[in-house]
Known about the structure:
With 348 residues, the chain is α/β, with parallel strands linked by helices. It has helices at residues 24-37, 54-67, 88-97, 125-134, 154-169, 183-192, 202-206, 230-240, 258-261, 276-286, 293-305, and strands at residues 3-4, 8-12, 16-19, 40-43, 75-81, 100-105, 138-140, 175-177, 196-200, 247-249, 313-322, 327-329, 332-334, 342-347. It is globular.
Amino acid sequence: MSTSTPEHITITRPDDWHLHLRDGAMMASVLPHTARQFGRAIVMPNLKPPVTLTSQAIAYRQRIVAAIPEGVAFEPLMTLYLTNNTAPDEIRRAKDSGIVHGIKLYPAGATTNSDAGVSDLDHCTKTLEAMQEVGMPLLLHGEVTDPSIDLFDREAVFIESVLIPLRRDMPALKIVFEHITTSEAAAYVTQSGGPIAATITAHHLLYNRNEIFKGGIRPHYYCLPVLKREQHRLALLKAATSGSPQFFLGTDSAPHPKGLKEHACGCAGCYTALHAMELYAQAFDTVGALGQLEQFASISGPTFYQLPRNTGTITLRRSSWTVPAELAVADTTVVPLNAGETLPWKLE
Ligand SMILES: NC(=O)N[C@@H](CC(=O)O)C(=O)O
Ligand SMILES: [Zn+2]
Ligand SMILES: [Zn+2]
């Protein structure tokens, strides 16, 4: 059991079950932020070109491992990017590798680097059957891409038009509904039973869509799925702090160069790896639920992925600090979420 007082909290070292590390110099620059807080992370495969083969995931993993700072224990958990052409045999190779822990579905066009994603899940039936058979989780960016559907409704429509039919056909397929943003998604996961869970970001627990437009357009608060109304934020906070093993931590930390965020057509993604646990502690504290943080951050994820819990601990202290205005990352600059703001919790 964790110790929890209003002033500090010590919990089992957490994991990040949804993370973008990118590659090359950017990856080497952002990785220490994640490795300082988390024991492991599910590393998203939406590189350019995407990580579609087990052999590519093995090579990407080696590049990440080579960039882990001296003396830091961190384990990258790899994923493959599902395409219309992913072969069922590739799923078996992925499973046998022991290093691939999920297959990521990006509906084509839904988000950053999703052009090679799936245009219609009907192309993937045999591959999904292989996943169901070997117990390989399907990780979902759960938004439809139909341009006639309102941007704010794309997650709710995805549940009805993609997720419910998929789970009717493949009830034993393990699914992680990634970065959920709506009360509909939280309710669906809670009520549906079976092998489904969801990750929730810190920013969707802390902010509603007003944040994007406060005093002017604020591109660093733009991510996909986009922030929603306050009623949805409250539903997510309730799910995250409920103690349910179906909800766990996934930051969706997604670094983009400053110039591509502060742009006429800015990229989607919030950079939170620097201060992730501080943000989650802040969110849980607003509803007096710090006692549930360990379940959400350190226990429910390993249980779902059938991995052991981490052995070490981290301590968060109520102690204010100011997030840097920007970070020098590789040969560019990344602006973290909350740049220049003072946060109430600090990781020791
Ligand atoms: N969340 C985002 O807004 N962006 C992510 C992609 C994703 O997770 O959808 C990225 O890779 O930048
Ligand atoms: Zn996504
Ligand atoms: Zn993501």
